[in-house]
């Protein structure tokens, strides 16, 4: 039987292992995501987006840094207790210095990113909840990174999460996302096992085409500097929420 999202204890997400494996240094794949997303965000004037949302924010700060170039207010939606606690510390104290290279690259590629890491995070508010609790149509921009395909083993539930993601944005609102490509069920650290739903550019295109306008889908190849989770790279997406997406 496929593992579904509600079968998983997300409160026990291994934050320190995940950061050590993925974000204590800036890896080439994340630099490529940042480069792609900065081109997207340079299409906005500073503060042009009144409210944006990061779905399943986790302990990854660089999507929040990217959004700070265009957003006056950013909701970081996170369901897991351990991830939420980490975000709370980062937002209300001194952020980990390991995020400075990420901030520097974001600002080099988009000077509208606030001058300091703390400044980039100042517009962020933690919202403790999951994708299904987000107000439909409440945001001018919705962002999601490595969430829907890592929250379930069931493709139908993956598609449902993608529909919910698009519904977070108002009709005509902007979308930007990244997915692990062909991600199987995987481990973080020595013990923990987490669901994966393998998707690729064709699957992402199929799912999002009826939900969006101006859809672009691309990919980044596998990064040998990261742990071998069994994926084959990353899929990148931008688009606009359709005026009347299917329910």
From TrEMBL:
Superkingdom: Bacteria
GO biological process: what's one of them? methylation
* Keywords from the named record: Methyltransferase, S-adenosyl-L-methionine, Transferase
InterPro entries from the UniProt entry:
NNMT_TEMT_trans (IPR000940), SAM-dependent_MTases_sf (IPR029063)
- Coiled-coil spans in chain: none
Gene3D superfamilies noted in UniProt:
Vaccinia Virus protein VP39
A single Gene Ontology molecular function, please?
A: methyltransferase activity
> What PROSITE patterns does this protein map onto?
SAM_MT_NNMT_PNMT_TEMT
Protein name as annotated: Class I SAM-dependent methyltransferase
Lineage from the top down? Bacteria, Bacillati, Actinomycetota, Actinomycetes, Kitasatosporales
């Amino acid at each position: 039987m496929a593992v579904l999202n509600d079968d998983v204890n997300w409160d026990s997400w291994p934050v320190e292992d995940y950061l050590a494996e993925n974000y204590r240094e800036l890896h080439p794949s994340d630099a490529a995501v940042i480069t792609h997303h900065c081109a997207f965000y340079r299409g906005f004037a500073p503060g042009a987006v009144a409210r944006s949302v990061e779905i399943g924010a986790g302990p990854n700060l660089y999507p929040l840094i990217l959004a700070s170039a265009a957003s006056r207010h950013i909701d970081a939606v996170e369901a897991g207790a351990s991830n939420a606690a980490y975000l709370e510390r980062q937002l209300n104290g001194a952020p980990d210095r390991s995020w400075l290279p990420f901030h520097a690259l974001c600002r080099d590629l988009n000077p509208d990113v606030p001058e300091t890491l703390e400044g980039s995070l100042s517009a962020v508010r933690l919202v403790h909840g999951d994708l299904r609790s987000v107000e439909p149509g409440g945001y001018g921009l919705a962002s999601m990174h490595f969430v829907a395909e890592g929250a379930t083993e069931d493709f139908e539930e993956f598609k449902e999460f993608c529909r919910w993601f698009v519904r977070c944005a108002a009709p005509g609102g902007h979308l930007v996302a990244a997915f692990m490509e062909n991600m199987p069920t995987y481990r973080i650290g020595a013990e923990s096992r987490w669901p994966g739903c393998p998707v690729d550019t064709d699957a992402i295109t199929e799912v999002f085409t009826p939900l969006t306008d101006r859809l672009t889908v691309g990919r980044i190849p596998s990064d040998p500097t990261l742990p071998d989770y069994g994926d084959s790279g990353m899929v990148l997406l931008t688009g606009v929420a359709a005026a009347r997406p299917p329910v």
